[in-house]
Amino acid sequence: MAVLVTLGTLAGAALAGAAPAGAAQQATAIAPGVTYEEFDLPAAKGVTHAHVLRVDLRDPRVRLGLLHPGAVAARAPVSRLADAQGAVAGVNGDFFNISETQHPGVEATGASVGPAIAGGRALKAAVPDGQRFGPALPPGTSTEDVFGVGADRRARLDGLALAGSVRTPRGRLPLGGLNQYALPVGSVGAFTSDWGGASRVRATCGTDTDRAAPCSTDTYEVTVRGGRVVSASGAPGSGPIAPGTTVLVGREAGARLLRELSPGEPVRVRHRLVASASRVPFRFALGGCPVLADGLPLPGLDDRTAAVRTAVGIADGGRRVLLLALDGAPAYRTGLTVAEVAETLRDLGAADGFSLDGGGSTTLVARAPGATGAAVRNHPSGGAERAVPNGIGVFSAP
User: Are strands 188-191 and 177-178 parallel, antiparallel or unpaired?
Assistant: First the structure.
């Protein structure tokens, strides 16, 4: 049953579980432990319209997970991802490699910027900060920052760094990437079956500080299967990678090291994502941008550029999560600045907040009680759902 609540008398109150002051809030139960609401939200550039999912992780029937199309370098609309995985609701996720206008002839991979974990398994690591798509990062943050939920069923913000190596008869090489659309200059990156069939050429374009820099002309690729080198190539390839096979792509110094390997030589590749703070393993995680920590907006947040946004807030020590998506209809398209996103999350009761991809990507879906599929609840600013690489799915057992 929908309940309409007028909050105009709250005048600036930041109450947990309440909409910001002046908002008209309509809340509907989607599933056990999951509610959906929408309300107008006054902002510096004009009134915007907010859509919010509230998720109670204290309810054992509820969990969050990574929505993804089955390959890192692939995209699909949020509603399709939710239906395919049985989610009752969800929002779009990380920023991603959406175009390659700076590198004519190079395929845009569609892969996300930051780390990704699904079902406790690492899918990918973060690209260098300078290779990021999306608004500028606030001071002190990086592409390794993630939002996720641990094995303890608590949501948290953290950083996930890649720890990996390539062991050869000549010694051990550090691993610079895992299923990433951009590798650090001079490094070796690993691509597995999780990557998909997209071209790996983009991984050798740009530099650690300049996404638009030319593609490297010094590259090499080695395929490892059953612990041994089975083939090599002077340029990154494309096509699906078989399970149990790893393709190593090197650029500059990394390429020169890979050229020393010969078919039949033993090679062992190891990789894992290491959290910077928490010792509790993540069950799922995805990248984005921290904007709120311990109830305080991060310093240096952009307070000038307003846009349609998606964000996630954490309350009650990680036991409650709210997913926020703004409406992209023409009447509301002015949206919020990143600083206003942080303030809005705080006013909604969050202590920590994380900004996700916005603009035409911003999508919130929720399944109506009794329905078989998730429906788009906001108006995407492009007029239709954009295909995205991942998202946050809300799952609720009967």
Answer: parallel
